[in-house]
Amino acid sequence: MITLSDSPVVARVADRNGCDPKFRLRSEASAPRCAAMVSQPTTAPFQLTGRKILIVDDDRLNLRILAGILKGEGYALAEADSGEKALDLYASFRPDLVLLDVMLPGIDGFETCRRLKRDHGPASAPVIFITAKSESDDVVEGLGAGGADYLPKPFKPKEVLARIRSHLQNQILSEQQKLLVDQLSKANHAKNRFLGMAAHDLRNPLASIRGLAEFLREGTAGELNPDQIDLIDTIHGAATSMLVMVNELLDVATIEAGELKLTIETHNLGDLVAKCVSMINREAAKKKTHVVYEPPPEPVLLPMDQAKVKQVVDNLLSNAVKYSPPGSTIQALVGRDPDRGSFAVRDQGPGIPENERDKLFKDFSRLSIKPTGGEKSTGLGLAICRKIVDAHHGAIVAENLPAGGCEFRFTLPTTQ
Amino acid sequence: MNFNGKILLVDDEVHIRKYVSLILKQLGKPVILEAANGQEAVDAYKANRPDFVLMDVNMPHLDGIEALRQLKEFDPACVVIMLTSLANRDTVERALELGATSYIRKDTSKEEISKALTEIIDARSDAE
Predict the structure, then answer these.
(1) Which of A203, A212, A220 faces B107 most closely, judged by CB atoms?
(2) Whole-angstrom Cα distance, residue A95 to residue A55?
(3) A172-226 pLDDT per residue, tens
(4) Does B13 contact A250 at a Cβ distance shorter than 8 Å?
(5) Of A134, A175, A142, A144, residue with least CA distance to A51
(6) Which stretches of A7-101 are DSSP H helices?
(7) What are phi and psi of A214, to 5 degrees?
(8) Using omega within 30 degrees of 0 as the cis cutoff, is the peptide bond preceding A154 cis?
(9) CB neighbours (10 Å) of residue A370?
(10) B12 chain-A contacts, CB cut-off 8 A
(11) Sign of the CA dihedral with A48 first, then A50, A55, and A59 last
(12) From the CA atom positions of chain B, what is the Rg in Å?
């Protein structure tokens, strides 16, 4: 946790156009008390008073000079005269920054730094080495050992304070970002859980509504007149499209929560596509659209989760039908290379607007192009496809065809 | 098929009971007894001795798992089929360990539920 004495630092997430969240940190800190030796800094976004600094030097005079410079700034200080003592003190004092002399009795500064980073991790306090000019060649080694910076001796108080301030500020910023990322990832996790629960709880009643509508339609509760049949068909259609949406939400929630589990078995992609094509052609017939498919001469045997890959094929075929003008012909192709099998679908639709290509496989992204028969879309279908293909270590791409229309293609490796 | 046995249908959601009842009635002329929670199910089973039980997992008062345990304790030969939905996989495994005969996904289409019920009824008549 970050504690900033009397300066409220407000971290805000600005979500611009739904893309990368930008961190904006606003500080309402009053200017820090100025030390006698240093003029007031022109930019002071953070109140650093009370931050803890561990000074490690075997030269008592150096210790006294540094302590003198730093005390005036209101830092809390601890001192050690060897690397071993510094490491002990680090654990109990928990400094925000370490000033570390290179030449020390016992283990030297570089080794001390290495051990500190090893024991306390990369998020431990930044280490600034104190070096005499003659040692400046060693600085590279110091930075390699995990050091953040170095201070040349003899000290220039302004420079000492400026460097320390800069590192403490960076540290606060990175702590805040970590906290923010942490909170965001928790919020995202909660969102997925909620999405999953809500979608799941909606499934049963929706399935009942759809099933009960079928009973009515079949005349189980008495013969219906054409107007009543029309209403029941509408209810049935609405329940069906809601079920599709709810299932997609559930898929996303499951995948995002890392709960997508594949049951891998070897299946013939050619057969799988044949079944999907014959199913989609019933739907396509309503738009006088037709999907043509020539099964490959040899079986294309691939390790896959059959149900999941079928979902991808169904989705790509149904998209092709959705976005193609009525009466057009859609081509489905299955092929194989030595190390992978592929499925492609080519439509005669409007293609993908170039400036929207990067949105294509992202969650909840709908492009400016619209289904040609007023079909519904959650904007999740392709995102789910990509996640399923990724989980199979495959690849999915979309390309506009020179002759018009576009091609969606995925490839799956022959070995998982 | 003309199944005319006695079925105990247990679910706290009235729409599920209506829906599944309609599907069962398409398969014959069964006597359908309904219960809205685990406790009602156990009581109804003891009083009526149905041929088999279709039972939801998540229910108030006494849930499907506990009711299953009690039914098995009362009558180790009782046939209980769990009515489940997608997210209850772990619970279904637990139910099968406790002696449930099988399970039916109630969040699927009418055809699929009907097919699953037919299989169960067929298996029952073969057993007799």
Answers:
(1) A203
(2) 10
(3) 898 899 999 999 999 988 888 888 778 778 888 899 999 999 999 999 889 999 9
(4) no
(5) A175
(6) 60-71, 83-93
(7) -65, -40
(8) yes
(9) 13
(10) none
(11) positive
(12) 13
**What pLDDT digit, counting tens, does each position of A150-175 carry?**
888 888 888 889 999 999 999 889 88
> Distance, in angstroms, between A249 CA and closest chain B CA?
13
φ and ψ at residue A183, rounded to 5 degrees:
-65, -40
Which pair of tokens denotes residue A103? 């030449």
Using CA atoms of A127, A131, A136, A137 in order, give the dihedral in degrees to the nearest 10. -70
Mean pLDDT along residues A260-271: 90
**Are the C-beta atoms of A253 and A190 separated by less than 8 Å?**
no
- Rounded CA separation A133/B21 (Å): 90
Q: Please give the Cα distance from A343 to A348 (Å, whole number).
A: 17
State the ipTM, two decimals.
0.80
* Cα angle for residues A193, A251, A269 (degrees, 5° grid): 155
Q: Which of A208, A220, A236 to mutate to test the interface with B (most CBs of B within 10 A)?
A: A208
Out of B13, B18, B107, the one facing A212 most closely (by C-beta) is: B18
Chain position carrying tokens 């002759």: A403
Of the listed ranges A116-120, A156-160, A321-325, A358-362, the least confidently predicted one is A358-362
- Smallest CA–CA separation between B105 and chain A, in Å? 10
Residues in chain B: 128
**CA dist., res. B5 & res. A415, Å (int):** 51
Best mutation target among A195, A200, A204 (most B Cβ atoms within 10 Å) is: A204
Model-wide pTM > 0.90: no
| A203 with B22: Cβ contact below 8 A | no
Q: How many whole angstroms separate alpha carbon A46 and alpha carbon A6?
A: 10
Closest by CA to B83, choosing from B105, B63, B60, B61, is: B105
